[in-house]
Design brief:
CATH topology of the largest domain: Jelly Rolls
Shape: globular
Number of domains: 3
Radius of gyration: 29 Å
Structural class: mainly beta
CATH class of the largest domain: Mainly Beta
CATH architecture of the largest domain: Sandwich
Number of helices: 5
């Protein structure tokens, strides 16, 4: 009888289990990457300070993206999303969703407005951010300290006597007309690039701004103003007043005022235009706790044409008001602090500003019309973001030898148009396209698929024959099918002794 062929001895059970576990881990990792979860590094500053990607500061956030987020729901406004860039589909971009399919949108005064079709009222409607999101977008402009209290208050006092006691500012109403001061210079209420950064990074960012990376060119009226006021027994009223002056429009006053009459105290929010017969809008709240000699925490917020306030433990608002979409005039934002009667001490004063959306330089009144099944994406750092305000396509025609020729005279090549050589020939931007190599008389163009084409020609040939398509039906927008997922968390850097960046993304 023939013997059965020899068989290999079975693997030891422990080894077999380890191999199976390793194989399963690899499969799960691959599945997570392609279907559920993926990590990305932020390479550019377009989303700062929400997401950091700064070569100059050496900070690159690593984020987690939920790739299944849009399988069961549509993309939502204000989501931070990762998507394939339509003008170079080999690249992934991360921006915030601001425009939804079918919308008509306009940027003015740092805010975003929906524009109604001609003949339909209201003609404009401001797009308001959810309060849960707004709280994460404030950028610190001023924080009271011993070093800066005098410069912020005293030198601009209008009435009464103002003095500094350490890090506390003291207002004395010696005339009975109120102690009033313009608080902060108008120049400080701009969209300066360093706002929102830790103090140890601000000087570096200021140097970058002076070098042209973020000009602080827009006034910002959406602010959060906080202070801790300690009235004495003769203080009768305290007022925080914000004045905005749009270009070509009436100025408006937005205020939080608290008053004490006998044993009763009231708090009032008010928004009014400074023109004859303007309608006054008021909200009152009774039973404000006001005790002479006790600290009273005040918070006053103007955000997306809404006022909010907190006085001690009492909340006021929202008080909505209506404004036309106009850009704020230069110097057109002013903060004024007033204390009437007695002596009032102010401590722990802070001012934060909102994110400030900017129109593109070429046409500040342009209306963006989002096509069906498309989205409009903008960066949180408008001064340094190439996004749906400015995206364009470059069209270049070449002959059989890849030599640049006149339009419609050869083969058409299409790619992203970000030709920085016009203004910065000495530096190469990471997304520059086409790239010129003048010493070799060559142009390198990346097409819509990311494939590179080496063309024969000079910068002058490109200037002469390239065509920018800037306002086609979908050039500035992202097809919904290109959305890859929603960014939901930052997991690096995690240095507890520097800028700790770990957390959920809003």
């Amino acid at each position: 009888m023939a013997k059965p062929p020899p068989t290999n001895p079975p693997l030891p059970r422990k080894l077999r289990e380890n191999i199976e576990a390793a194989a399963m881990a690899i499969l799960m990792a691959v599945g997570l990457k392609y279907f559920l979860l993926e990590a990305y590094e932020i390479p550019t500053p377009s989303m700062q300070t929400t997401l950091m990607g700064s070569p100059d500061l050496g900070i690159y956030d690593r984020i987690l993206v939920n790739k299944a987020a849009y399988l069961w729901r549509d993309p939502q406004r204000f989501d931070i999303a990762v998507f394939r860039y339509p003008h170079n589909r080999s690249q992934n971009y991360v921006k915030r969703i601001l425009g939804l399919p079918g919308e008509r949108l306009k940027i003015a005064g740092g805010d975003l407005y929906r524009v109604s079709p001609p003949g339909k009222l209201p003609a404009y409607e401001i797009v308001r951010k959810p309060l849960s999101l707004q709280g994460s977008l404030w950028k610190r402009v001023y924080e009271q300290s011993t070093a800066n209290a005098a410069s912020a208050f005293k030198i601009r006092s209008a009435n009464g006597k103002w003095s500094v006691d350490g890090d506390v500012v003291v207002a004395r109403d010696s005339t009975g007309r109120g102690a009033s001061t313009v608080f902060l210079r108008a120049d400080e209420l701009r969209n300066h690039a360093w706002h929102g950064y830790p103090e140890y990074l601000q000087e570096k960012v200021k140097d970058l701004q002076r070098a042209g990376l973020g000009s602080g060119r827009a006034m910002v009226g959406d602010i959060r103003w906080r202070t801790a006021a300690t009235p004495d027994d003769k203080t009768e009223a305290i007022e925080l007043l914000l004045t905005e002056r749009p270009e070509g429009g009436s100025a408006r006053e937005l205020s939080l005022r608290i008053e004490k009459r006998g044993d009763a105290a009231t708090a009032r929010l008010r928004a009014r235009e400074l023109r004859p017969n303007a309608q006054k809008v008021e909200v009152r709240s009774e039973n404000i706790e006001w005790t002479a000699g006790s600290e009273l925490a005040l918070e006053f917020i103007n955000s997306d044409d809404r006022l909010f306030a907190r006085v001690g433990g009492t909340s006021l608002g929202p008080l909505a008001y209506t404004s036309m979409p106009r850009h704020l005039a230069q110097g057109g934002v002013q903060l004024r602090l007033t204390a009437e009667g007695g002596t009032t001490r102010f401590a722990e004063t802070t001012v934060d500003r909102d994110m400030c959306y900017l129109p593109w330089d070429e046409d500040p009144d342009f209306v963006f019309e989002v096509p069906a099944d498309h989205l409009w994406m903008l960066g949180d750092n408008p001064e340094q973001s190439d996004d749906g305000r400015s995206w364009a396509l470059a069209k270049i025609w070449v002959d059989a030898d890849n030599r640049i020729v006149a339009p419609n005279k050869g083969k058409l090549l299409v790619g992203n148009a970000r030709w920085m050589f016009k203004n910065q020939p000495e530096s190469l931007d990471r997304d520059e396209n086409p790239v010129v190599v003048p010493k070799r008389n060559r142009i390198v163009l990346s097409d819509l698929q990311g494939e590179e084409h080496v063309l024969i020609g000079s910068p002058e040939d490109v200037r002469k024959w390239m065509r920018d398509e800037e306002r086609g039906d979908s050039v500035r927008f992202v097809p919904g099918k290109y959305m890859m997922g929603r960014a939901f968390a930052t997991f690096w850097p995690a240095n507890p002794f520097a800028w700790f960046r770990i957390g959920l993304i809003r």
